[in-house]
TrEMBL record:
<dbReference type="InterPro" id="IPR050228">
    <property type="entry name" value="Carboxylesterase_BioH"/>
</dbReference>
<protein>
    <submittedName>
        <fullName>Unannotated protein</fullName>
    </submittedName>
</protein>
<comment type="similarity">
    <text>Belongs to the peptidase S33 family.</text>
</comment>
<dbReference type="InterPro" id="IPR000073">
    <property type="entry name" value="AB_hydrolase_1"/>
</dbReference>
<dbReference type="InterPro" id="IPR005945">
    <property type="entry name" value="Pro_imino_pep"/>
</dbReference>
<dbReference type="InterPro" id="IPR029058">
    <property type="entry name" value="AB_hydrolase_fold"/>
</dbReference>
<dbReference type="Pfam" id="PF00561">
    <property type="entry name" value="Abhydrolase_1"/>
</dbReference>
<keyword id="KW-0378">Hydrolase</keyword>
<dbReference type="GO" id="GO:0006508">
    <property type="term" value="P:proteolysis"/>
</dbReference>
<dbReference type="InterPro" id="IPR002410">
    <property type="entry name" value="Peptidase_S33"/>
</dbReference>
<dbReference type="GO" id="GO:0008233">
    <property type="term" value="F:peptidase activity"/>
</dbReference>
<feature type="domain" description="AB hydrolase-1">
    <location>
        <begin position="27"/>
        <end position="279"/>
    </location>
</feature>
Length: 296
């Protein structure tokens, strides 16, 4: 295992290699969610992939975790294009730009899909976990899930969103009721908690691009939508989601329908983190797909 950073025009991007990228097997780059959640909660996926003998690369996207934080940057700095540039530079820096796979979770899957629509020559496989392809549908589906929350929780959310007091303890507690149902339905392991803790210390990227919560999207991604671009993806694609996921089956079905030849696996006991909630099944399905679709 090696840890280092990549220097580029916006600072340093931290990364960790789990396994050997030179062992002849196509390595997998893991793109984390948030935006701004950091790599920590994906360590379990890196370990799952490494058990197959394939290297996994964890990295903290610029602006969070162990990478350079840029709190002074204007809102328009934070864009999907920024993070696609970072990913392009990272695979080149690692010397794997001719042969690699990308696994993205949540926002990382959004990034992975948009990245793949540009058909980078070295990308061989895409795995999309728990992601939407448009924030309009994401918010619409989130509102349906919110309607199922206890009335007092719904009232608290609405009041603080209307008053602009979403940093209050009452709002945070109400959001956690939603998260316990649709983000992670099992006790959060330390690595997952670490991602939330580091994001709380510097929420710049998350608040700028998303907003104060998963379902109150008021940031720069509010109008993001790549549904019409998904037909351009030309690599084998596995889509993973949970039955209780905030990335609901309705929105994932749209992605599956639009990416040619894609495979969709729905995890019946999971919400937004099947790799934590049903790890044995996740390991079997993801590693089998990678081994079947990659030449090495």
């Amino acid at each position: 295992m090696s840890v280092t950073t990549m220097k580029w025009q916006h600072g340093e991007t931290w990364y960790r290699i789990v396994g050997d990228v030179k062992n002849g097997k196509t390595p997998v780059v893991l793109a984390h969610g948030g935006p701004g959640a950091g790599h920590n909660y994906l360590i379990a996926i890196a370990d799952i992939i490494a058990q197959s003998g394939r290297a996994a690369i964890l990295y903290d996207q610029i602006g969070c975790g162990n990478s350079t934080h840029l709190q002074e940057k204007p809102k328009d700095f934070w864009s999907p294009e920024l993070f696609m540039e970072e990913l392009t530079l990272l695979v080149k820096h690692l010397g794997i730009d001719k042969d690699y796979a990308v696994l993205g979770q949540s926002w990382g899957g959004m990034l992975g899909m948009q990245f793949a629509t540009h058909r980078p020559s070295g990308l061989k496989v895409l795995v999309v976990c728990d992601s939407p392809a448009g924030m309009g549908l994401w918010v619409s589906e989130a509102n349906k899930l919110r309607d199922q929350l206890p009335p007092e929780v719904q009232a608290t959310l609405l009041k603080h969103e209307a008053d602009g007091t979403t940093e209050s303890e009452d709002y945070v507690n109400a959001v956690n009721v939603f998260y316990e149902r649709h983000l992670c339905r099992v006790p959060m392991p330390p690595d997952v908690a670490a991602s939330f803790e580091q994001m709380a210390l510097d929420p710049t990227v998350y608040h700028t691009m998303n907003g104060p919560s998963e379902f109150h999207v008021v940031g720069s991604l509010k109008t993001w939508d790549i549904h019409d671009e998904l037909k351009k993806i030309n690599v084998p694609t596995l889509i993973v989601s949970g039955a209780y996921d905030e990335a609901t089956p309705a929105m994932v079905q749209e992605i599956h329908r639009r990416i040619p030849g894609s495979v969709w696996e729905l995890f019946p006991e999971s919400s937004h983190m099947p790799h934590i909630e049903e790890p044995a099944r996740f390991k079997r399905i993801v590693n089998a797909f990678l081994d079947a679709k990659l030449n090495n």
